[in-house]
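Bench notes, afternoon.
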Amino acid sequence: MIFTSFILGRYPHTHYYSYYLIVQTMLIFSKCALYKSLGWHYYCTDFCYAANLIILVYVYFFPKNDILFKMCLLYGNGMLGTAIAAFRNQMVFHKYDNLTSLALHAMPLLCVWNIRWCTMPYEATLPESERRFGNLDTSFSFMKFFVYPYAFYLAWAAFYVLINFIIKDKKIKEKGYDNCYVLYMNTKWNRMMLHKFGKSEWATKFTFIFYHLICFSVAHFWAIP
């Protein structure tokens, strides 16, 4: 935390982004390895990992792509930022899982915030050839604000259903593996919510995805202003 604060303050437009790539990549791989050992690796199919991946792709491969920029800005300030409160991420220094969960949600938000409010305004004073990121465009675009972000989200949702509810469903049950759906079904209040449209297995799975879409949409609309 101390080093992140230092490098963000000292090199906000240059070395911070290389630091972000290294740290965030290590965190994701170490988190997946930890969860694999605990039988929780299907949590790695959650949307926060997909959002982290798309932000890494944007920063390091397509930093001038305005579509990806707006997607990442909305994901960081929307679903990832909301998840910090929703999952009660805590800074417990002696618990690696708590720290990595907080970092996986907070660091992408910090990164896109720094791009939008610090690096892009700074680079606007530089010649075009010296700019790392694209020009800041604050005009409204329905395609960039809604169509593309929702298209990626729906692609993730299809992937999540395919892996967790179809291909690996039997294995998850037989091995007693955990995922977000299992977690909700094992919690009384959440289970009552998932039984809203019926108690059959497919009804609860549909309800789970439907509620996730609602939460994503609320966070997304909140992030736009």
